[in-house]
Batch of 2 targets.
Target 1
Amino acid sequence: MSTAEYYTGGEPIADTKAPAGPINERWQTRRFTGRLVNPANRRKLRVIVVGTGLAGASAAATLGELGYRVANYCFQDSPRRAHSIAAQGGINAAKNYRNDGDSVHRLFYDTVKGGDFRSRESNVHRLAEISTEIIDQCVAQGVPFAREYGGLLDNRSFGGAQVSRTFYARGQTGQQLLLGAYQALERQVAAGTVELHTRHEMLELIVTGGRARGIVVRDLVTGEVATEIADAVVLATGGYGNVFFLSTNAKGCNVTASWRAHRQGAYFANPCYTQIHPTCIPQSGDHQSKLTLMSESLRNDGRVWVPAERGDDREPGDIPESERDYYLERRYPAFGNLVPRDIASRAAKAVCDEGRGVGPGGLGVYLDFADAIDRLGKDAVEAKYGNLFQMYERITGENPYERPMRIYPAVHYTMGGLWVDYDLQSNIPGLFVTGEANFSDHGANRLGASALMQGLSDGYFVLPNTISDYLADGPFEAVDEDHESVAAALGAVNERIEFFLNNDGDRTVDSFHRELGRIMWEYCGMERTDEGLRKAIGLIRDLKAEFYKRVKVTGKAAELNQQLEKAGRVADFFELGELMCIDALHRTESCGGHFRAESQTEDGEAKRDDEHFSYVAAWEFAGSEPVLHKEHLEFEYVKPTQRSYK
Amino acid sequence: MAVSGVLMVLFIIAHMAGNLHIFEGREEMNDYAHGLRTFGEPILPHESLLWVLRLGLIASIGAHLWSGIVLSRRAHLARPVKYAHRHKARGESRGAYGVMRWGGITIAAFVVWHLLDLTFRTVNPVKDVPDAYGAVVATFAPERWPVTVFYLLALVALGFHLRHGIWSAVQTIAGPGPVWRRRWQAVALTVAAVVVAGFAIVPLAVSFGLVS
Amino acid sequence: MKLRLRIWRQSDAESKGKMVSYVIDGVSEDASFLEMLDVLNEELIADGEDPVAFDHDCREGICGACSLVIDGQPHGPQAATTTCQLHMRQYSDGDTIDIEPWRAGAFPVVKDLVVDRSAFDRIIQAGGYISAPTGTAPDAHAVPVPKADADAAFSAAACIGCGACVAACPNGSGMLFMAAKVAHLGLMPQGQPERHTRVLGMVAAHDEAGFGGCTNTGECSAACPKEIGLDVIGRLNKDFRKAAARAA
């Protein structure tokens, strides 16, 4: 069936910045061919960095160290609260400290394969190369990584990798890495190279003369709307998982900065690639505001099961072994409970769809530690997972030592994002995008412990090197408040604020967001179908229309107004949600985190269609009918194969 | 706060030990009191030890009070609006805040009375300074029970003050790790108990007629 | 369950605030404390009233944004738990709950339960870092770190910067927050060159911000959702003494 009614085909695009030549020399080549900015000229150049997570704080700090004048924005009350703080597992680096056969090439290979052959080889190789420098950098900053008795760094195998290349700081690696970047950032604030603006939200991108030249921000405390003009703009504003309302993202995470840039012309790539994490605490009721991730490491010792019969509502302890279905062990004997995230997630959904789910609403499966406790002893299990068990008990009121945990998949990460070239520059000159906000390195699926790696790689090492090639042409001509493009951007923002405050509505923003989330989860979640996606697009359009008619926002513009903040974000989520569905609809293959029910193997595994879909889908904003630009993907070093975890 | 406090703690321990001479009898007690005055004579002037102690104590009290006032003032400015709902303390030195502030004021008031009573004898029936024994027996005489009660109350305040003050001073000066912090908290509690018991036994013995 | 909430309402930094009572019914015991407030806010909006502003973000106990003093206790009654991780099963039908913002001169109220904690950022700016510009680092294994030191540094670095220590301290002191950073960096070999300037700078910034002095009451540590111990304060004191002596 044709999907052309939803979009228009556009010209193909290409990444013109990635150098040719042997893959392991490309990054070096690019650093040499890129132009530099004389240290004395750097202080004449102003760079805006939006976001203070790993990708933002590291970029702002490093640009400040280089001598650029940086203005750094975040909506939180402190840069340290950006959601990178919540990453638990660890960070990969091809250090081969274990002598277990790891190398830059292997990390590159694993990442391309893990991304289900939908990422660029050049980018991924650069990421693998830089991974080792990141660890060095973070250790120098005093990040307290886990160590062995000899004083050297400890590593673990993570997410089913065959080598131990994951560096970690207990279950709080993201926190420690972010604090390292945050401290480096605050050091630059003290040095006067970075101006920090907390509790400020970017609401529009200013494009002048074909270049990104600034942003419109709202001071969330006073409500004042102002502009900031610079020579380049860097968006490090994270992912868009909150389009699902319930996700493991922080409540404040939103797509507005990226979406506003998209509306100004930046292409949005692969929006349908979302990662669902299999081990989250299930929803307990309608009050649920977010979902909490339980570290994937739990699957190393826990066994996943559901009752063999549907509708079996006995207590888990009363169900004999013979009446349990350890479905992962049954279906995937080689990997068992350790199958990749997307497979584990879909398998959980499948058993729940059969009516065999457990807990409220039948949306949960058991993760049972009884065998591990028998085998290792309660103390050993507690030593390994004590803090996770405690967190689980706090949230659910159930004791996982005595009763199996209940888990269910939840949206965790979004691989899609603004389209960027090898320099991390979007198709709008002067607009750079780093971290989860761009689409670049993970393809259709991200491996565990790779998000932190990418954020820091972009922020510390890639962007500060590549942005100079663009800034070498600067400083660009002055743009003042009266300039047409500035006035238009400012006007649009004020108009939107006025609209929400004056709308005579009767429904809360959250009620719309919840409903949008339910549509997205139902039709654009773990499993997508042609029929479902078409239905979803219709539902989203209707709901969006109702939103503009009925949304009610209390309060005033000139004050701290959390409802107003949410209203703007949800409005953008509607448009993004629609684009995600269109992207998912047009990509009739399954790959990585995108599973189309129509494209599966006989065993129910994702089936790629390399012949037709070996490309990046970069969408140009054009109202209700977006324009699709395809970037063809070449695989010279890692030949596409079908995954198998049997 | 910590340094001046430590000096005063040392003085208090010596003072308490000295008080126990009363159980040896009137002559020994008065000899001890006399000895304090004539310590080091004739090489050193009369009461030189006492003057060193007095000056040291005055300096310590001054420093302690000044630090206390500065801290209280800062605390006041640091929380201009108080909590509507006050919850009871649950920290390791729970209650220390009130104990130190109000206990410290109680102790200060007591010290004034104590000096007027047993040093200057202004409010003591026995004006003859060398007769320390007589003065003690007279002031804690059973019919003057309010004096004894005040003394004991001040001691309780002192006990709490020491329990927090000693480990707090160690924490400020030495900065122990978790194990040694617990040990110092135990030491502080022990010293506080011994000091309270050592001081309390004298007026109680007099009040109950064991010493007369 | 049905609850009576008494919540501090203050429309902005300049206004005078007061405790206002609300009754909320049908609260699920599985809801988190913040979800209970979400429900209240939905009801307030429906009634055309201004919803209660409060800070929150990750809702999994790590970002440090949530900041409510619940019945006089920062983050509420459960030990080692942030407000977002506190669940309503801790309460019973008919309870009255008092909810106030962090109270500290250095943390002025922005609106309702939201306070300005930027003073903490200023303390970090004054030395809470190791100067290691990007690109200058030696190999990660160049300097071994004894496991015990790395573990102790991690425990101190687990601070989420929420400010519960300040809210709990009878003196309104930021000592535990500051000391946790001094201890973390001071325990790492990489942190040694700046050890003395760091502690002097941070203490000066702390005092400048208007926090009170530390009198070792231990309330901070008891309120700390990450259970940071008082030993970090001992470490700061020791470092400060040495640094001050050297500077003199």
Target 2
Amino acid sequence: MNFDPMLPIWAQVADALKRDMVSGRLKPGDRLLSTRELALRFTINPNTAARVYQELENSGLCETRRGLGTFVTADAERIAALRAAMAEELLRGFLSRLQDLGLTRGEALAMIEAAEQAQPAGPSEE
Amino acid sequence: MLESREVTMRFGSTVALDHVTLRLEPGHIYALLGPNGSGKTTWMKLATGLLHPTEGQMLWKGETVGMHSREDVAYMSTEPFFYPWMTAKSVGKYYEDFFADFDPARYEDLLRRMDLAPGLKVKNLSSGMMAKMKVAVTLARRAKVYLLDEPFNGIDLLARDQIARTIVEAADSDTVLAMSSHLVEEMEAIADWAVFIKQGRLVESCDLETMRQRTGLSMADRYRQVYADLGAGDKEVL
């Protein structure tokens, strides 16, 4: 993973894990990598890896069970809420950038429809 | 912890380190930063006990660095330190005889991961292979302190990733790990603490995430800022 050096690294790794939770690659209740494994997986400092889980835990997306490891929350509603929040953030950015280009709502909608017809939307895998 | 208290090091009339007080704690990976001649290598050599400070104290766990601390400190110098007639395998044996904490299985594993055949002769190693072997043999020690001087030098991009991963692996909650490199970007994600040394003086020792948040700068940007007045290229002070 290439990091943006301007953003906190823990936030970038947390975002990657959140995307995995939302896409279903990580399922509710799944066991996550240990802090050490996470550090090696992303080649990041072990303290940064610990911070990733700490922050995810603070936002209720994962939980650490003493001696067992860290798990994705079993609460599917939280994941659904996360998906909605991430989609909303994406949408806001998208809309504000279209606005910056001077497009009206109608024009933007027409463009989205045209793009969908040109390339049918479907589940996309990275 | 490993610390220097008001350490000054002079070589003749040259001041390599000027009243440097610095504390390295276990559980962190430190990036020692500064252009050539800043004093990073001198600091590492003092911490290893290879040099003795002109003034001030160098301490490991509160005691002056010396014979007892050598058992705990694994130092990788920039100079090659193997005999030309040795093979990768015999370098391991040599280290095993020398250091009680040397783990032959780990060394073998590191050689394999760095694509170095045990039968390779030191005299036939390319500069990149030599650099990888130095890292492998140093990190194969189960030391309490790792001091790596320029671990990424002369190593291609793919092997650099491998070395970064190996460094993360060696880091532990009870080990002190410090590395110096001109390749600041290589250290951005694996270090959590940055130490800026400029012309023998300590400029700043800071937690990286805190620094990034406070200044909005990456470690590389901060580096450019701190050393801006030295101009392009390396300034040789030593």
